[in-house]
Amino acid sequence: MKENPKPANAPQRESRRRAQPLLMHPVVFIGAWTLLGSSFALQEWMNLRRWGYHIGLDIELESWGAEFLIWGILSWLLWRTLGPLIRNASLGFVLGRILPLSAAACLAKEMIWVLLFPGLPLNRPHMPYWPRLQFHLKAEVVNDMVIFWCSILLIRGLGYYQRSRESEKAAAQLEVQLANARISTLRMQLNPHFLFNAMNGISSLMRTDVDAADDMLEQLSSLLRITLERESVQMISLRDEVDFLEVYLSMQDRRYSDRVKRRVSVEPTLHDALVPAMILQPVVENAYVHGLSKIDRNGDLIIEARRLENKVVITVTNSGVGLSASSEKPSGCGVGISNLRSRLQLHYKQDCCFEMSEIDDGHVTVRIEIPFQLPDPNNPRFTRLGVE
Fold it and tell me: Where are the domains of the chain?
């Protein structure tokens, strides 16, 4: 059995319905008006008691409640039918359309209310419908006009508030889109940089160890496949990032043979923590290029990740010639490191830390501190590869 297709403008209507403030839901809005009328009824009843008049509370609640119930319905109908026109009304529209409408609304309200309460006013002899209507119109016209124009101001105020929220939401979405575009651009910049350095390493082995160069080329193809699979994914689990790094380290093991001893240590509670994709590879690559490649033996590379309260702290320590003897500036201005700094700022603003320091003349450490986050499986942006 075929389902009836939705009209082309159905998504737009659903979007507008979702955009309506909760206050303008008919149950909430009309209920609030009725509650307001009940509060006025209680106040008048207490005043009358204080002045020596004995009128039943039920009569006060019924009359005031019905009056504000009618105004609630009329105001909601104004919002529903003329809301956009009222929110954007010019002075000419107000004088030419809304002013006559106010008289009609006040008349309609009084006609309904007088019909519902034939016994009021209590201090007068019984009157037919039309004389009673005339009496209540003279007594209530000012109050009715005030209530009507308060409703108009409420509708305009809600319109301003709604436009303001939509503008803020649009601005926030544009900011997020801009940040994601900048991060994607940085990722695109990082991949050729990584590929260029890897190909240089393979090229240097071609003349000395063809088998090692062939293994490195195979490992490089695995890294490129993983990179392509991730596509625009920005956040991945630390476990996946370390797996990617292990393949890269295996490539470096081929190139540097037994010159480097490495150790990777990650706290078990951090395996599922979210980190920016390729957060470790540029740091480790920097350690090899500017530190470990400068020594002939007994090189050390220690990669650690631990949790410190609500932060993930990652440190990469390597032996080498140190920052002062390196050709790189102490602040770390290589493509990979400057790229990583920029991505961290885009992801976390000021809620992150990147430090590069010299422990002694032969050891350098990099410390990265980011917020601890776990993936939300119910988030549609979360995939098996990470968060886009």
Answer: 10-170, 208-375+383-387
At residue 1, the pLDDT reads: 39
Residue 264 makes CB contacts below 8 A (sequence gap 6+) with 242, 245, 246, 249, 303, 304
Instruction: Give the residue carrying structure tokens 């220690």.
Output: 302
The predicted pLDDT at position 311 comes to 94
- Whether the predicted pLDDT of 332 surpasses 70: no
Radius of gyration of the chain from Cα atoms? 36
* Superfamily of domain covering 208-375+383-387: Histidine kinase-like ATPase, C-terminal domain (3.30.565.10)
- Measured CA to CA, the distance from residue 311 to residue 317 in angstroms comes to 19
Confidence at 268, pLDDT banded by 50, 70, 90: very high
- Cβ atoms within 10 A of the Cβ of 157, count? 11
Please state, in angstroms and rounded to a whole number, the distance separating the CA atoms of residues 378 and 308: 26
Sole residue written with tokens 């159905």 = 10
Segment 76-96 shows an average pLDDT of: 86
